[in-house]
Design a protein that fits this description.
The structure holds two protein chains of two kinds. Chain A is mainly alpha-helical. Chain A has one domain. Chain A contains eleven helices and two strands, in the order ααααββααααααα. In chain A, β1 and β2 form a beta hairpin. Chain B is mainly α. Chain B has 14 helices and no strands. The longest helix of chain B is centred in the N-terminal third of the chain and has 30 residues. Chain B is globular and about 70 Å long. The termini of chain B are far apart. The chains are: A mainly alpha, B mainly alpha. The interface between A and B is large, with 47 and 45 residues.
Amino acid sequence: MLQALADGLLTGAIYALGAIGLTLTMGILRFANFAHAEMMTWGAYMALGVLTAFGLPTAPLGPLTFGWPLLLATVVACALTVALALLIDWLVFRRMRDRVGHLTLVFASFGIALLIRNVVHLIFGGRATYYTTELQIAVRVLPDLRIMPDQVFTLSLAVVLVIAVHQFLQRTPLGLSMRAVSENPSLAVINGVSLARVVRWTWIVGGALAAVAGVLYGVAVQLRPELGFHLLLPLFAAVILGGVGNVVGAVVGGVLIGLIESFSVLVIPAGYKLAIPFLVLLVVLYLKPTGLFGGTSGGR
Amino acid sequence: MLGVAVYLVFFLIVVTIYAIMVMGLNLQWGFTGLFNAGVVGFYAIGAYGTAILIGPDRAALIGGFEMPFVVGLLGGAIAAGAAGLVVGLATLRLREEYLAIATFGIGITIQLVALNFGALTGGANGLIGLPRPYFDLFAVSNAYNLAYLVCVIMIAGLIYLALERVVQSPWGRILRAIREDVTAARSLGKNPTLIRLQAFVLGSAIMGLAGGLYVGFIGFVSPIDFLPILTFQIWAMLIVGGSGNNRGAILGVLVVWGIWTASGYFIGQIVPPGYQSQAGSIQAILIGLVIVMTLLLRPRGLIGEEESVSSHARKRAQQAYKKKPEP
């Protein structure tokens, strides 16, 4: 039981990081971005690319399986993911915003998701890979609970980032503009908020968090081109469970989805684990479509 | 020469079955504006539904009811329609993209069920040795395939004619009214949620029917036939031809399936064997490019939707045009 709790929290933390970016896109840009999870794939593989291209040593840092090179590579990967997000927005979404129905944006993101996934597959191949081949011995914390140092690192980093994003949205003028656009775009624009700037920063925050989440997933599980494809449903479920546009809701939703998945394996065969977010999603949509905490007006 | 003809028959059967799926999607997206991100799921439900109903009785499996093919076909379509009802009821009264997300979930979930629920679906091996309808009547399997092609084309033709009638009917006009302006449709006393649900379920059932026809043709089902890429292919076919127009949809099937087959052939010829799987993603990239470029550059598709104006308004406009004084 305790082990399921720990595993669920770890997965949930990664979901939460991905879900923040997705809920911002759905709240501020007002469309369900099917390509968001593919940015996690992209970020994870860009970090791998940086490690391989520069032949950086994989000497472990303390008890972790990876060292400072991966942290450095993650920073580069964040930049490359933000660049990709901004490029896609400039090439595709910008041309469609305000001109066509917002379902066309959903459709375009659906096609872009296919493109990103297959570009990654073309460059890196389809086999599962890892950042390092270091083995890690789980530390027995309690009689029935084993934790790996990597997991502690992942969880702590996720908590720090979530707090940072929350402070950014609550305390800074830019965060305030983003929340304002999410609540009511026309009113925000009348009050002098630059829509273009808010859109840009939504991609920057969402893209960077997606890259970190992708790398952490790669550390915790493995790297595969289908990484994002399989994460998309949990992310959507987390966002809708927490209320679309609600960042705190997305974090709680992500953690809850992680926990429900992890505990469900105790009852149902592990092969169906991927379907759990879908069932949660259907239950939420039937019973409380506004989510646990209610969304912003962009969510309705 | 015979080889080419045999392949052509095979190609055309697949194209026709895909065309049926595209017509189902066209009813949902083209006419009603509903985004279905899990086309492959409904197709798979139809295929497995048919397979379970017509399959031979086996001790290890739950299915195998040895029903006639037509019953299996209808059963598969009804099962796919029922799945459409479940997601439709959950999402159609909400924000539009919730349907997209939920249907995406259906696509993923059905694949998991196909892989893991071995007692019903045969797991990764699938269900093999399914009876092909009226196979005994033909001495040669090529002649059978040709006859099957004729049957499939006739079914596709019937669906085409039926859909053309349906979208011209008052019900079809409500579909487009809802797509263009929900509030206006609602203010005229229409119930958008109910009408959307009807269109979505009907479209899903048509996709299920396509799945059943595929099973009748190849005689087995396995999860390999229902990869997520199929959803993207069907979407590309619809958008290239022009959504909202069934003739465009059928043209799109030929164009996109042609691009897919030809690019696959060239990759097979050029790329060394060890890299084939990796290079195969070029095919998927082409499909993605087709979707995004069409949306950006030619959102109406090759043919596009015909303008629909009431005959009175058109007559009046023509008279006004005639009366207009020469400049």
